[in-house]
């Protein structure tokens, strides 16, 4: 039996969807832990994010959008 979840407390419609997502997420985390790829230090990752955000701000300024934040393709006043 599938339980319908309250949308105020869960982003999933049913407990089955929540369980599938949890399994998927845990699998992805374990794959990352087990990965032999080189690690990226936190400071370097944050520096990359800062550079990307600054480049996006410059693009928006050059386009005449002014000081606005972009979220999900929508522009919101900041």
Describe the overall structure.
This protein is mainly α. Strands 1-2 form a two-stranded antiparallel ribbon. It has helices at residues 15-34, 42-62; strands spanning 68-71, 74-77. The longest helix has 21 residues, at 42-62. The protein has 2 helices and 2 strands; from the N terminus they run ααββ.
How does the SSE layout of this entry go?
Blueprint: H1 15-34, H2 42-62, E1 68-71, E2 74-77
Summarize the structure.
The chain is built from 2 helices and 2 strands; from the N terminus they run ααββ. The protein has helices at 15-34, 42-62; strands at 68-71, 74-77.
Strand content: 5-15%
> What order do the SSEs take from the amino end to the carboxyl end, as H and E?
HHEE
Flag low-confidence runs: none
Overall pLDDT level: 82
Please count the helical segments.
Answer: 2
The geometry reads as flat
Largest sheet: 2 strands, antiparallel
Instruction: State the helical fraction.
Output: 40-55%
Alpha-carbon distance between the termini?
A: 46 Å
Rg, rounded, reads: 19 Å
């Amino acid at each position: 039996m599938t339980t319908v979840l309250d949308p105020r407390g869960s982003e999933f419609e049913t407990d089955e969807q929540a369980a599938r997502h949890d399994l998927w997420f845990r699998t992805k985390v374990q794959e990352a832990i087990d990965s032999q790829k080189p690690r990226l230090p936190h400071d370097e990752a944050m520096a990359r994010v800062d550079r990307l955000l600054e480049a996006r701000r410059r693009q928006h300024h050059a386009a005449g959008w002014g000081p606005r934040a972009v979220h999900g393709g929508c522009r919101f006043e900041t």
